[in-house]
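FAQ: What does the model actually see?

It sees only this:
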Amino acid sequence: MPKLRDKIPKKYYLSEGYLKCLENHKETQKKKGYGFGYCIKDPEKDPASTLMVGGMGRERNLIQDPNIDMNSKDTGKKTPINEGLIRTLTPREFARLQGFSDDFDFSMVSDINAYRLFGNSVAIPAVKATADCIIERLSQAGLL
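And it is asked to produce this:
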């Protein structure tokens, strides 16, 4: 999981109503014998779940984070922010999990498109390791 760094805007925190909806969904799935549902991770101990664009992609990597920026723009949520301060990862945190540097600029896209970008990308360290291996093999074969 990414290191928690900055104050997080309120918009990333789940509303009380949405958290209750997730709890109900998880309970319904459990009764049916399925393991689907949201997951609250400990960013200091737990690895992140697979980053996905749709379905429960963001809800599988929720974290409890008291580092809320109370001065950020109001959320427009229909119910108050949940008391446990459970939130989704930000697009920047998704980027970090995929190996993008903090200076990678994706400010020109909306949050939802940033989540799609990082959920559909291949982790940068995996691409680099694969490329390094290919270069090494080609070099050993005298093809470089």
